[in-house]
């Protein structure tokens, strides 16, 4: 059975109402409420004080933290003012609550900068409202992260300085930048103290946030991919900016990465598991690009699973499998962006240039 808790007691009437509804709805659907959280807790609702944001320091990767912020006064600008609260709370998700004139708006915000909202007006059926909260959070909180890496200094010497494929990846990163599709890496160090940075690095290996990634097949079983948390417009070093992915160890739940000797590597992109699944199943796929942008008339995932989860990778892989031409398909990730396959990087850019919408639609 899955379990959940609250980081503290709700401090206002609206938060007490919200907490009671969450407890009732989640316990009716096979979640067990605990007032004594331990290392095995699955879901934590973490109340924030906007004047003194304290992070929830989870003890295990499997704990999914939803920060809860109640607004005071006029609504905030979601991305400029609310997004830093998500980062500073060390949460996986944030529920931003604004209430006025007998209406409650809840905005769900993700680290990928996805956002969508639900509304409740006094007098409406409360059960329907809380069911929407459950439907939003339950799949995310029970998903499985694949973000650990196993590094081996076994990269063939002729690849230590890269090859024509890494050169193509580097040029493609610059191309994404010229298309204004590379948001700057989010400066975690501006919002987190050294202790919190160490905590994030210990749990997730996170040293920064950046959006989008690229990869290209090397041979039947291996591919090159941009590393996590880097500036994609300036990729040069093998083992740091560009990594050689050789497989996925399902028993250890780790991506396997080959690196040159005497290199302190960057971690693999959290989307490496998704790319690995696609390359493994479709030998005709030679390259994959993921961008935080949108295009019209694309098939999309129904659930906004977090990046780096097995569930997101399997969902995208299924949509690629169902496509008329898996080698040249564009898959939408709900409230997130696009995953695009092609026989080559050049093919992908030829198909998307001039057609990409910079803003991802939220719903």
From TrEMBL:
Matches recorded under SMART domains: Aldolase_II
A GO CC annotation given for this chain: cytosol
InterPro entries: Aldolase_class_II_sugar_metab, Aldolase_II/adducin_N, Aldolase_II/adducin_N_sf
This protein's name: Class II aldolase/adducin family protein
A GO BP annotation: pentose catabolic process
Domain Class II aldolase/adducin N-terminal stretches: 195-360
Keywords from the named record: Lyase, Metal-binding
An MF annotation (GO) of this entry: aldehyde-lyase activity
Pfam families documented for this protein: Aldolase_II
Annotated source species: Alkalihalophilus sp. As8PL
